[in-house]
Design goal:
The protein has 143 residues and is α/β, with parallel strands linked by helices. Helix content is 36%, strand content 17%.
C-alpha cells in the first residue's frame, strides 16, 4: 500500500533468512512469474470502462518481465560484489502481492550459514548495500 501510494518506480523488499540445511547460503531474489495470456482475466468485461478492477495477484504479475530484469541485475551485482552465490526464483512473494511496480523480495543472506554471517560482519552491510545499489543502477540504465 505504501509503495502504491508513493507511486514507486521499483520495490525491493529486503530480508535475511535461515535454513536447517547445512549447505544453504547466499542470496535469493524472488520476483513475480511471467505468465502467458495476461493473467486470469477476472474483473474484465467486453465493455470499455475507465476503471479496471484487477485481482491483487494480477497487479504484480503485469510487472513480471521488468521485475525479472530487476532481479537478474541485482543478483548479478551481488555476485560481482562478492555477496553470492545469488539466484533468481520466479515466485510471487506475499510482500509483493498487489504492488503496482516492478518488485523483488531479496533474501540477502542465510544467517544460519557461517560464511554469510562472516561476510555481513562490520563493513559487510555497507558492501551489501553497495551491491544492491549497483544492481538497481544497472536495471535503471537498461530499462
Amino acid at each position: 500500500e505504501i509503495a502504491n501510494r508513493a507511486r514507486a518506480d521499483v520495490v525491493i523488499s529486503l530480508h535475511f533468512d535461515g535454513a536447517p540445511v547445512p549447505g544453504a547460503r547466499g542470496a535469493t531474489a524472488y520476483c513475480a512469474p511471467a505468465v502467458l495470456g495476461g493473467g486470469s482475466g477476472a474483473g474484465r468485461s467486453g465493455a470499455a470502462s475507465t476503471i479496471e478492477a484487477l485481482p491483487w495477484r494480477d497487479v504484480a504479475l503485469r510487472h513480471a518481465v521488468p521485475a525479472r530484469s530487476l532481479a537478474e541485475a541485482v543478483a548479478a551485482a551481488l555476485e560481482l560484489g562478492g555477496q553470492g552465490p545469488a539466484r533468481v526464483v520466479e515466485k510471487l512473494p506475499l510482500p509483493l502481492l498487489g504492488v503496482n511496480a516492478p518488485g523483488i523480495l531479496l533474501e540477502c543472506a542465510t544467517l544460519t550459514a557461517p560464511a554469510d554471517r562472516a561476510r555481513l560482519a562490520p563493513d559487510g552491510l555497507k558492501a551489501l548495500a553497495a551491491a544492491i545499489a549497483a544492481g538497481l543502477e544497472t536495471y535503471r540504465r537498461n530499462d
